[in-house]
Specification:
The strands form two sheets. A six-stranded mixed β-sheet has the order 1-2-3-4-5-6, covered by helices on one side. It contains eleven helices and twelve strands. About 40% of the residues lie in helices and about 20% in strands. It binds zinc ion (ZN). Zinc ion binds next to loops.
C-alpha cells in the first residue's frame, strides 16, 4: 500500500451505550458497523461532512456481527449510499440482518429462560422494531478467509472470530494491520460489566488467534470496554494496549470459566437470587451488576457454559 489509509471513529449514543462505527478512508470508502436506525443520518453523515467526505460515496458496509446495535443502521446507511454500498456479514449472523424476528428467537433460545420476564419477548421485539432500520439481504456472505478490494491497492482481509456471536468476524486492513473486531474482544464487558459470549471455547480460541497470529497494530472496538478497575479502554487501541486488552480478556474469560465449571459440577439450583441458577458464579466473581439488564451478558455467557457442559457430559 503506497499511502497510509486513515481511519476515523464515528460515535452514536444509545442509552447506556456508546456505539462506534469506523470510517475507512479508502478509494472505495468503507464503514465498519452501523449503530442503530438513527445512527447513519444523525451520527455518521454530519461526522463525515466535517471530514470533507460524503455518506453517499460509501461503497462498503462491513458488519462485524449481527447484534442490533451493529446492524440496526445497515438498511438506512445502504439507502443513503443510493443502495450502491456492498453489505458484508458472516453467513452465521446473516439471519439477524435479514430478519427482526431472528433477534427475538436468539433471546428466547438463550437468556430468556433465566430472566423470568413475561414481557421479555415483547420488549425485545419492540426494541428490534424501534432500532433496526429495515430487514435486508446482504450483498456478500463471508466465512473468513476472503480478501475484499477497497479500490487501487487497498485490501481488507476477513477473519472468522466466533464466540461473542457465532458469526463474529475481524476485518484487517492489509499492510497497516488495523483490526476491526466489533465486540469480539470483551475485556470486562461494556455497560453491564460482564463479558458476553455464546460460545466460551470459540471466544477463547478467537482471542488467542488475535493475540498470537493477527497481532494488531491498531485494534478498533465496538464499545469502550472496561478494565478490571472499571476504567474504559478507548475504542482505538495501539499495539501495546491491544495486547493488554486481549490478554486481560483471556484472563477474565478463564476466571468466568472456572467459576462456571465449579457451579455446573456442583449442580444448578434455582434460588430467589437474581443470578439464579448461577448465584455461585456471581458470588465467586464478585459480580454485583444487574444481570437482567439487556443484553444480559451474564446469562448469555453462563448459558453458553451450560450448553458446553451438557455437550461434554
Ligand atoms: Zn455484540
Amino acid at each position: 500500500m503506497t499511502q497510509e489509509v486513515k481511519i476515523h471513529p464515528l460515535v452514536s449514543p444509545w442509552g447506556r451505550f456508546g456505539l462506534y462505527s469506523f470510517f475507512i478512508d479508502a478509494p472505495e470508502p468503507a464503514i465498519v458497523d452501523t449503530g442503530i436506525a438513527s445512527s447513519p443520518a444523525e451520527g455518521m453523515a454530519p461526522a463525515l461532512e466535517k471530514l470533507g467526505r460524503r455518506i453517499e460515496d460509501v461503497r462498503w458496509i462491513l458488519l462485524t456481527h449481527g447484534h442490533i446495535d451493529h446492524v440496526g443502521g445497515a438498511r438506512a446507511l445502504w439507502e443513503l449510499t443510493g443502495r450502491k454500498a456492498k453489505v458484508v456479514i458472516h453467513e452465521a449472523d446473516a439471519p439477524m440482518l435479514r430478519s427482526r424476528r431472528a433477534h427475538v428467537d436468539e433471546y428466547l433460545a438463550g437468556r430468556a429462560q433465566y430472566l423470568n420476564d413475561p414481557e421479555g419477548e415483547a420488549k425485545v421485539a419492540a426494541a428490534g422494531n424501534a432500532v433496526i432500520a429495515g430487514e435486508m439481504e446482504p450483498t456478500l456472505l463471508v466465512r473468513g478467509g476472503e480478501t475484499l478490494s477497497l479500490g487501487v491497492d487497498v485490501t481488507v482481509s476477513v477473519h472468522s472470530v466466533p464466540g461473542h456471536t457465532r458469526g463474529s468476524v475481524a476485518y484487517v486492513l492489509d499492510g497497516q494491520n488495523d483490526v476491526f473486531v466489533g465486540d469480539a474482544v470483551q475485556v470486562h464487558g461494556a455497560a453491564n460489566g460482564f463479558p458476553g459470549f455464546v460460545d466460551p471455547a470459540a471466544y477463547r480460541a478467537s482471542l488467542r488467534f488475535l493475540r498470537d497470529e493477527v497481532r494488531p497494530r491498531h485494534l478498533y472496538l465496538g464499545h469502550p470496554y472496561r478494565r478490571t478497575d472499571g476504567t474504559p479502554y478507548g475504542v482505538e487501541l495501539d499495539a501495546e494496549q491491544a495486547r493488554a486488552a486481549l490478554q486481560e480478556s483471556l484472563e477474565i474469560e478463564a476466571r468466568v470459566g472456572d467459576a462456571a465449571c465449579a457451579c455446573l459440577e456442583a449442580g444448578l439450583r434455582d434460588t430467589d437470587s437474581p443470578y439464579s441458577p448461577f448465584a455461585q458464579v456471581a458470588q465467586e466473581l464478585g459480580y454485583a451488576g444487574d444481570p437482567t439488564l439487556e443484553p444480559s451478558p451474564f446469562f448469555t455467557t453462563l448459558h453458553g457454559h451450560r450448553t458446553q457442559f451438557t455437550q461434554k457430559s
